[in-house]
Specification:
Elements (H helix, E strand, L loop, with lengths): L4 E10 L6 H19 L2 E6 L6 E10 L2 H16 L5 E11 L5
Antiparallel strand pairs: 1-3, 1-4, 2-3
Helix pairs in contact: 1-2
Length: 102
Amino acid sequence: MGNGYVGTLSVDLHLPEGRSLKTKRKELLRVKAGLARRFACAVAEVDHHDLWQRARLSLAVVSREAAEAEDRLAAASRWLHGDEAFEVVDEARSVTAVGEEW
C-alpha cells in the first residue's frame, strides 16, 4: 500500500510591468488563484516580498502516483511560462514519496 507523493515547484518570476508593490500583489493574486484552481495545488509567495518586479512562488501537489505529481507540476510550469505578464527566470521541481509514519 502506497503512501502517496508530494511534488513541489518553485519559480522565480520577473514582472517587467511592476510599478509598485500594490500592482505586484494584484498580479500575484491572479496567478496564485489560477494555479490553485487549475492544478489543485497550494501556492505561496516565499521570497522577494519587498521588490516590485521580482517574486518567488512555491507550489505543492499531493497525489497517489509519482507520475501524476510530475504531470501536474509540468502542466503548472507550462501554464506559468505561457503567461505574458511575467517571465519565469528560474525553476526547480521535485517529487518525494511520503514515508511511513509508524
